[in-house]
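Bench log. Compound arrived from synthesis this morning; before running ITC I wanted a structural hypothesis for how S-adenosylmethionine sits in the protein. Inputs:
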Amino acid sequence: MQAPGIADAATQRDALAGRLLDATLGLMELGAVYLGDRLGLYRALARRPGMTSAELAAEVGVHERYAREWLEQQAVSGFLEVDAGDRPAEARRYALPAGHAEVLVDPDSLATMVPFAQFGVGVIRVMPALLEAFRTGGGVSWAQFGSDLREAQAATNRPAFLQLLGQAWLPAVPDLHARLQAEPAARVADVACGAGWSAIGLARAYPKARVDGLDLDGPSIELAQANVARAGLTDRVTMMVRDAADPALAGRYDLVTIFEALHDMSRPVEALRACRQLLAPGGSVLVVDERVSDTFVAPGDQTERLMYGFSILCCLPSGMADQPSAATGTVMRVDTLRRYAAEAGFRTAEVLPIPHDFFRFYRLRP
Ligand SMILES: C[S@@+](CC[C@H](N)C(=O)[O-])C[C@H]1O[C@@H](n2cnc3c(N)ncnc32)[C@H](O)[C@@H]1O
């Protein structure tokens, strides 16, 4: 690595300073999005376009002065449209453009971005615990991360689980797709199921299949149970608090799934071994994890930067909360997954040709 000359150093300095100014704007915009979502401001504007600050404040129950400042910030940032004219600030009327509404108020849209704002706020909340973990080598448990992270995680994947899992991902694996449609009813274990959207997506797409969801985190299972009940699926979908690495896990499943969670587990090999023992003859494990590059490349692309960001702020500390830990982090490369699978006794770990911007799909067979 060569030291930069003075001119190069000035260019580097200005580029990084500019980039961090953009990041500061991004941080503030995510904070404003969090307020807009949590306080119901965006939903009110979507229901009733063209409100003044006083009308919006009355509609959602916030203070008018705060509503006015937030509306002005949103208009200046280009999130909302404003009919300003020559009117005084109190008489300006604001609206949420239709395309922006999909990103900000539709939890089922694949374009939803509100969960990322909630993620940002969630990790800032636990910053003292993160500092402590970095210093001591300890961790920050999923429970410590709290409801913002839990809800952000669930909301991030919900659209894909409800619209792609049973419609595009599983149909791309013909024998699995056929088994899930066949008699006798296929049994699926959704390991580390979080708030249950993957289990719900599976059960909706395959009306004969029965799904057991399990997760270490009690509040996630409570959320999942409520979501399953609202979806009217309690007859075929069951949720329970369990450690995936528990050697006493019992059952016989045609399919075991682990969505975006293997890299979070303290003991992924033990968990995969337990999953292998759950398989009925002919069964397989589907691991869906991050589509990171095969090797370390710096500087990296957007996906790699995103995944390292998640790793230092959330996944590595949550995986290190329980010791001993494999300390995987979000950037679990193909080689690492294959090593874990081999150590857990799987004969093959095939990368499935399913396209997705952020996920890679692995099928593990004993
Ligand atoms: C990033 S979240 C993913 C949740 C869900 N699968 C999804 O895609 O939204 C990781 C989940 O793994 C769970 N988890 C971590 N270690 C686990 C273990 N050993 N057994 C069961 N669940 C575990 C956490 O409680 C958390 O719900």
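What the model suggests: The CA atoms of residues 181 and 207 lie 8 Å apart. Residues 142, 153-154, 157, 192-194, 198, 215-217, 220, 243-245, 259-261, 264-265, 271 surround S-adenosylmethionine (CB under 6 Å).
ITC booked for Thursday regardless.
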